[in-house]
# Entry
Amino acid sequence: MQIFRAHWMAPWFNHPFLASELTDHGVVLHLKRERHSVSWHELSAPPKLAQGRRLYRLHLYCTQGDIELGWLPKVVAESLYNAITLAWFRFQAARILPLAESCLKVLEQGYLRQSRWQQLQQLLTQASQFELQQAAINWATLTPPMGLSDREAAALGLMATLMAADDTWREQCCADYCQQMLADFSDLFDSLEAHPLTPAQRLACVVDEDHNLVLAGAGCGKTSVMTARAAFLVASQQANPEDLLLLAFGNEAAAEMAERLAQQPTTRTVKTSTFHALGLMILSKVNGHTPRLSPLAQQESARIQAFAQWLEQLCSEDEDYNLRLQNWLRLHRFQVVPQPDYRRVAREWAPIVTALKLYGEPEPADLSSELAEQLTLVLPLLHRYQHSLAEQGHIDFDDMIEQATELVRQGRFTVPWRYILVDEFQDISAPRAALLQALRDAVPELSLFCVGDDWQAIYRFSGADVTLTTRFAEYFGASRVTKLDKTFRFNNQIEQVASRFVQRNPEQLPKTLTTHLRSNSPSVHVLPVDSNSQIDAISRLLGQVAAEQPQASVYVLARFRFSLPDEAQLVAWRRRFPSLNIAVHTLHGAKGKEADHVIILGLSRGKYGFPPEQSATALLDILLPEAETFLHAEERRLFYVGLTRARQQVFLLADQQIPSTFVKELSGGGYPGVSKWE
Ligand SMILES: Nc1ncnc2c1ncn2[C@@H]1O[C@H](COP(=O)(O)OP(=O)(O)OP(=O)(O)O)[C@@H](O)[C@H]1O
# Structure
């Protein structure tokens, strides 16, 4: 054991300190008549060396009161100082090591998500609660001495960094992570698709907050980003394929995603599902049997049929109901004689019944007397519907999502995923968002990745709530929003028209889209036609397209299914223009699809025009979440969806006598990208 002695003259001057020695436990001070031990534990900081006129003093910071060792010759003072400093740092490093290793484990998980950041802060706080002294040490201000092992130095360095870390440091960590991933996986992003991903698409794939929202414009490659993120997570070994779940709303979209994932060997086994299939799977797994889904839920036609029958029954059983219904129908210009068109009423009221079930009855104060009357007419339909489900032991999709959410909340379903990716997020409803939130809460490290475009939110009538997108962070908490603003589908001419049109509603999130394709001439054409000559006009347009671009694809779109050309007409066109790829869709059905040319028909005013002027939706409006103040807000977005299906040109067949207000707006000046054909 090395002894560090004070100057031989110390006792002569009655100085009590004679010598010191270092042990594993601390410093032993040899005083005149006794020995005094100071454990490493009691030293709250490294020692400090001070030079006197000829001799040195060493200051020890002790929790019981500071101690000064005087009368030290220079060589002794320096070596004692070095020895105590090194031993003190070693002692602290040994104490800190488990904490440093726990912090490192959090950091090694990758992107420093808000939840991981909180975990780190908790670790540091917990440690300082146990080790009060340690909390008082300001590691950031201390410089560790030479002689520490790499491990000790790293632990102390990490502590110094973490104790000084703030939000800016976290941001920097996230940015560094992204930069590293972008560099490491640039080959993957170059080669995954037929085209290399853009910088914005790549960034969207690697950002990995607890909740991620990718806000995109039409045609900006949302599907490419969904599948590329899945491939990236697997390639970077942050996830195995079975850790991932990709969710879509419709079967077709889920199937398309599955097909795209199957093209990569690493993502072939990634699970894709619709929300409904997910709900069904959760219920079946937990309950041990498949729930009995009502045919009324599965087939719209069956539901309408049942509602129509119940309306008829209600009228025949209850004369008062019959009279009130007839009055209401007359007032709203529905057919009443020879007898009411119950099917039509059923079709219009079905979404009201769904909304009533989902969101409950509105406050009476919110209803005019006319709407209150309508409510009393609709409520018996809801009661019969619920009664019929209960009687048959059936559930519908809303029940299924609600029950699945409850099972996840109760911990009865073991959530196997760590990454959930959701397509078309703008169309999510509150119950589906609650299911996502429950899944997320069940697995602390689960990250949500939602891709959507608030400009294309078109399912409010069936309960979708676009504010879950526009106020994503308020709903889900710690989030990061990335944007895709380069569209590959359409040219600048279509973009200018469509973006200006949709942004007339100031509630839409502002976006500036750039286009990959450019054109100098207008690409949105308004063709005034007589309502009876729409088919001829389409035939002429198809002929024109076939002559100029024989292999082109053409969509014929309409607001309502019954406005679309029938199957026989489609077959006739396909025969006449065999090289063209012609398809007909409702505007809702065309969502997510694209064609070279788009023809939109039925652009008139009236109850079944576009936008439809239907007073019957007033009650629905009150029931649905967050009524929109801008007139025809959702129809405007639907029109935007129609415009943005086209890669090259859009043809708007405007009713010559009563043109749609949307078309009047487009052709009335203010939209330089629109050409008007006479
Ligand atoms: N980085 C890219 N380079 C070139 N083309 C791309 C790129 N990313 C996507 N595309 C192409 O852009 C088109 C639109 O992509 P996609 O259908 O994924 O868009 P989207 O954002 O889902 O559109 P929407 O919301 O309108 O349905 C597709 O033809 C796709 O191949």
Remarks:
- The two ends are 106 Å apart (CA to CA).
- The pocket of adenosine-5'-triphosphate is lined by residues 195, 197-198, 201, 216, 218-224, 453, 456, 488-489, 592, 644 (CB under 6 Å).
- The mean pLDDT is 90.
